[in-house]
Amino acid sequence: MNKIALALPLTALLVACGSGGEGGSGGSQGGAAGELQAVGSSTVYPFTTAVAESFMRANRGTRVIVESTGTGAGIKLFCGGVGEQFPDMVNASRAIKKSEYDACTAAGVRNVIELPIGIDGLTLIEANGAPQLKLTVADIYKAIAANPFGKGTNTAQTWRDVNPSLPPVKIRVLGPPPTSGTRDSLAELILTKGCESDPAMKELKKTDEAQHKDVCTKVREDGLFVEAGENDNLLVQKVAGDPGSVGVLGYSFLAENADKIRPVEIGGVLPTEQTIQNLSYPGARKLYVYVKGEHLQAKPALKTFTAEYARMWGSGGELQKRGLVPFGGAEAQAAAAQASAMQPLDAAALK
Q1: Which CATH number fits domain 121-284: 3.30.450.40, 3.30.750.24, 3.40.190.10, 3.30.360.10?
Q2: pTM listed for this prediction
Q3: Do 93 and 185 contact (CB within 8 A), yes or no?
């Protein structure tokens, strides 16, 4: 069921354990109180799915529905309101934005609890048999930006067009749609940094932030950048079957498909657990689950579920085996403390 659900990103994973009897700490709960729903990031989806499976084995009578909608769309659903028709949790491959939090509070969702679950590496992949690419953030920006450095429509057709040291392979990048947190991470971690390799772009941000964002993050629409949807397993298949194309997704999918694909080196660094954890890899990013505090009293299983998540996300835990890079040191301690305290977000800290 897990493999089928992962291949259908807009289909909920619904695993209902037996409704009779008691088991685990959650006991038997019926109706809405015994059902938890999570939506959001396709990157975080496999991790929350794994926790859901473990949780339901230990808590018979409680079911967990996990749906991959993309971070932005998931947060919109999560922030829609309070009540059984609205999700209890949202998976996110980036931090919630101030504008999204404001939409939450306007709809009555005033206790948004942030759980950092670990670190991921925004990864560029290529087929194992393809000509090997070694890129910089500037190369990537110049290849897929709509208007590189504000100097006109992008006319580059091959990687050699953007950098003479690269092979004359046609540019074809399969990436996430605008609703995805991975798209936001691509813009923030890769495209903007590549854009700001030109000092004039750094100055532009000081004088015209809107134009800076447009020049630095808008991608070309002539078919060389392809929005591949939220199904990362399908993206892997497409890249593996089309040597020369490049895909953009989370590190965990690379680890699971090493027989078909390999990572593209960025700035001389390959994504590994070590380079992601120490943040030397340019695409390293935190992953999150947000919990609706208003649902905690009506659904006691929600607190138990977050405790199960915290048990599985640590070093040597089951989620690490699935590709999640665990926090180390003080960050690990802070994440564990937050999973216990369930402290709501301070809006003043949001961007």
Answers
A1: 3.40.190.10
A2: 0.82
A3: yes
